[in-house]
Design a protein that fits this description.
Layout: H1 44-49, H2 64-89, H3 105-113, E1 119-122, H4 128-133, H5 137-144, E2 168-171, H6 178-191, E3 198-203, H7 210-221, E4 226-232, E5 235-236, E6 239-240, E7 261-265, H8 269-284, E8 290-295, H9 313-320, H10 324-334, H11 340-363
Parallel strand pairs: 1-2, 1-3, 3-4, 4-8, 7-8
Antiparallel strand pairs: 5-6
């Protein structure tokens, strides 16, 4: 078999190993973090204004249908989660709630590169994935409300969205716990000779878990059809990658297992699609797993209870200036794929979908007490369930 390992990209010169707090300040104060997405500014103008901004390609890489699909999917993710954040503030959604706002391209670009029969699994920042895969916003919003009509029957809430009908194998609350599960799903696909794969997402904090390394070793040994994706948004909860690891180029961890590994600018949906498509081709050819580091950014805190005081407003606004949705919108308009009016119509339709999901959740019942022991075991008469 031909050698297919991806050559490691050189480390970006702006990725310093450690960040020191200014003299006289506590080490927990906000410090300027190296840019995890773009290379350092080169020109004097770029150095004065921050990292270079994304530009519209001279010629689109994909047909207009793909760009319109990306725009609609990412806008639905964004507007749904903005509404969820509002509802959380009104205490209509309770418990934990981790928003994906800013990271939408990580999902949209992967959906377009894979098939509907491939399997998906992720951590507890899990609203956007099923939305892009086709789960009804009504079912997801009802789950956030803990209602019986939710996609997990109101038993999972924000952190445990599941939808077997779209092959979304769920959001998982144990940090890194989904990584060996993703490898196991891929093992089942290989064993059953389906030709399908599993894409397994994790946060940057999860790469410090031992289970990841065990899963990587077995996945490479058995050449499992799995794409491991670390969504590196710069902060594991509220602590920067620079303060938690000597290895800040996270994709290089895969190279310890001879796993094809590469960094991806995940604020660019085209780059996400291309990287996932390459990894999928290897997986379907029997060449085993790939490890992708999606360099992205979340605009909100780790969860709704996180004020995100560990970063500056300037850092946040710099990333907002490269927003993936706005980049796709600009490409669509610049290349006459749609008019402002047509995009506005899409926006209005999404707004209506989100509002409908809220009304559906508000009007749905809570689970009844007899649901407590249901869906625990596949075997209906399992002997250890008692009244």
């Amino acid at each position: 078999m031909a050698e297919t390992k991806v050559k490691a990209a050189p480390k970006a010169s702006n990725s310093t190993k450690k960040s020191s707090a200014p003299k006289g300040k506590d080490a927990t104060d906000t410090v300027k973090q190296p840019d995890p997405v773009l290379p350092p500014a080169n020109s004097e103008a770029e150095q004065a204004t921050g990292a270079p901004k994304a530009t519209t390609p001279a010629q689109p890489e994909f047909p207009k249908e793909t760009y319109l699909q990306w725009y609609e999917q990412m806008q639905l993710m964004r507007k749904f989660e903005e509404k969820a954040g509002q509802l959380y503030g009104q205490q209509k959604i309770k418990g934990f709630c981790h928003l994906y706002i800013g990271q939408e391209a990580c999902v949209a670009g992967a959906v377009s590169a894979l098939t509907k029969d491939d399997k998906w699994i992720t951590a507890y920042r899990d609203h956007a994935h099923p939305l892009a895969l086709g789960t009804s916003p009504n079912a997801i919003m009802a789950e956030l409300y803990a209602k019986a009509t939710g996609c997990s029957k109101g038993k999972g809430g924000s952190m445990h969205i599941f939808d077997k009908s779209v092959n979304f194998i769920g959001g998982h609350g144990i940090v890194g716990g989904q990584v060996p599960l993703g490898a196991g799903i891929a093992f089942a696909e290989k064993y059953n000779k389906t030709g399908n794969l599993c894409i397994c997402y994790m946060g940057d904090g999860a790469v410090r878990q031992g289970a990841l390394h065990e899963a990587f070793n077995m996945a490479m040994l058995w050449k499992l059809p799995v794409i491991f994706v670390v969504e590196n948004n710069g902060y594991a909860m509220g602590t920067s990658v620079q303060r938690t690891s000597n290895v800040t180029e996270l994709y290089t961890l895969g190279e310890s297992y001879d796993m094809p590994s590469e960094p991806v600018n995940a604020m660019n949906v085209e780059d996400v699609h291309n990287a996932v498509a390459r990894a999928a081709e290897r997986a379907r050819a029997g060449e085993g797993p790939t490890f992708l580091e999606f360099k992205t950014y979340r605009y909100k805190g780790h969860s709704m209870s996180d004020p995100a005081k560990y970063r500056t407003k300037e850092e946040l606004e710099d990333y907002r200036s490269r927003d993936s949705i706005e980049a796709v919108r600009h490409t669509i308009l610049t290349h006459n794929m749609a008019t402002e009016e047509e995009l506005t119509a899409i926006d209005e339709n999404i707004k209506a979908q989100v509002q409908e999901s809220v009304e559906f959740a508000e009007n749905s019942p809570f689970p009844t007490a007899d649901e407590l022991y249901k869906d625990v075991y596949v075997q209906q008469d399992y002997p250890y369930i008692r009244d």
